[in-house]
């Protein structure tokens, strides 16, 4: 099968399209023919070994000290079950599925992958009806992160929520999830992305390059830092007493109930993945170059035609 591998950390051109052996499912695994994957900001960080100084050594110990342990990158996917191991009960051949590859030994930049039907760190579920492979692949990481952090912040009806960095993947889902729960949402992003965030439901947008949100007169129940570029001390200036600050810098956990909820919302057309650009598998270097710039809107998808 075709796959993208990287055998050293570095610029996007370390990613190479090669032929590798097609995986065979173990008894508890499903073999998925992948139709779409994504390039997340986590993927480009891993490829470039671009970790904050404090986390650099621990991250390299986990992901490979001298060279990457996991040669095939890619955290998200959508595809069709082609074969099931003999102990698999949750999925059948022909099912459309979507999910993540978190902490597995192989990723989704490939024509096929084997995933356990259940494992500790990642999730897999039947794909939402009504949306396609490319849209489904773009849902899990950003959607589950937004849901986890909004739950941690005790999101409730009629709250005021500020989403800092609303035009990224996590931000675009945080705006929509907060809105569909009945909150009022102020989105902080560039003015070039105002149309995007308003189309996702934001009540108002402010440009982080022109206005400092911490000087706003409004008070918020939740300040959600969706790009890891603001601080709790700044957020405190606009938080109500007892309000919550949450950030993508916090540890999150993938939960199957969150993926199921995301699926449900997508089927009810209350949550939609915003797709910025779509590349083919053999254009992976261009896709990484684009995401490396740090200005993607929502999600970048890789279509895998096989
Ligand atoms: N904790 C977790 O489980 C978890 C999960 C997923 C992601 N993450 C982390 O969350 C972060 C965001 O990831 P993502 O993929 O959602 O976002 P992303 O798509 O990488 O974010 C890009 C967006 O952020 C905006 N942006 C950049 N600098 C900004 C600033 N100073 N203020 C406001 N907006 C700014 C950009 O808009 P402009 O073009 O206007 O600059 C762009 O639209 C990454 O660091 C990622 O590693 C964490």
Description:
The radius of gyration is 19 Å and the shape is globular. Helix 4 (140-152) crosses helix 5 (169-180). The protein is an alpha/beta fold. Helix 9 links the parallel strand 13 and strand 14. The protein has helices at residues 41-48, 53-63, 133-137, 140-152, 169-180, 194-199, 232-236, 256-267, 284-292; strands spanning 2-5, 16-19, 29-38, 76-84, 96-100, 112-116, 124-126, 160-164, 184-189, 204-207, 220-225, 239-247, 275-280, 299-303. The chain folds into two domains: 2-139 and 273-303, Alpha-Beta Complex (Quinone Oxidoreductase, Chain A, domain 1), CATH 3.90.180.10; 141-247, 3-Layer(aba) Sandwich (Rossmann fold), CATH 3.40.50.720. The model has no long low-confidence stretch (mean pLDDT 97). The structure holds NADP nicotinamide-adenine-dinucleotide phosphate. The site of NADP nicotinamide-adenine-dinucleotide phosphate (NAP) has 29 residues, from helix 1, helix 4, helix 5 and strand 9.
CATH architecture label name of the largest domain: Alpha-Beta Complex
Spatial shape: globular
Termini Cα gap = 9 Å
CATH fold description of the largest domain: Quinone Oxidoreductase, Chain A, domain 1
Which strand-content bin applies to the residues? 25-35%
**Beta strand count:** 14
Number of domains: 2
What's the story with the biggest beta sheet?
7 strands, mixed
Q: Number of helix segments?
A: 9
The radius of gyration computed from the alpha-carbon positions, rounded to a whole number of angstroms, is 19 Å
Low-confidence parts, pLDDT < 50 over ≥5 residues?
Answer: none
Helix content: 25-40%
Assign the CATH superfamily of the largest domain: Medium-chain alcohol dehydrogenases, catalytic domain
**Order of SSEs, N→C?**
EEEHHEEEEHHEHEHEEHEHEHE
The chain-level structural class is alpha/beta
Q: Could you name the CATH class of the largest domain? A: Alpha Beta
